[in-house]
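Structure (tokenized):
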């Protein structure tokens, strides 16, 4: 299973970006997905998660109301729409997939990880 994250870049504070995570290989639409991020000098932290159907989402308090996670099972792709970006959102964003129907906030529930995409928010 391979996860390819894309869509990162440089954006001004208040702007928007949409990250994509395309899965290939022996994947399953029954798997849950999530996004995590790691800022320079900090530990990796949970951002958002979605269950296998897309009907259940969970967000970190720091992004709630600004970020939206969604998925298109026909395309084996998960998205993270990020609006009203802040400088503190600057980080490398990682997508992950777990064989559970919903993997939640814990990184050890996720079995596969993408390579990360850098998001830089300037003031």
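Design, position by position:
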């Amino acid at each position: 299973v391979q996860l390819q994250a894309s869509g990162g870049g440089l954006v001004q504070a208040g702007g928007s970006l949409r990250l994509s995570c395309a899965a290939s290989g022996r994947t399953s639409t029954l798997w849950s997905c999530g996004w995590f991020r790691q800022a320079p000098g900090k530990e990796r932290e949970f951002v958002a998660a979605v269950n296998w159907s897309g009907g259940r989402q969970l967000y970190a308090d720091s992004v709630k109301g600004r970020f939206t996670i969604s998925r298109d099972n026909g395309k084996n792709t998960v998205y993270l729409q990020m609006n009203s970006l802040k400088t503190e959102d600057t980080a490398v964003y990682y997508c992950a997939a777990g064989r559970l129907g919903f993997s939640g906030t814990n990184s050890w529930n996720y079995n596969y990880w993408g390579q990360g995409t850098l998001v830089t928010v300037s003031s």
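Reviewer-requested clarification: The CA atoms of residues 51 and 102 lie 5 Å apart. DSSP finds no helices and eleven strands in the chain.
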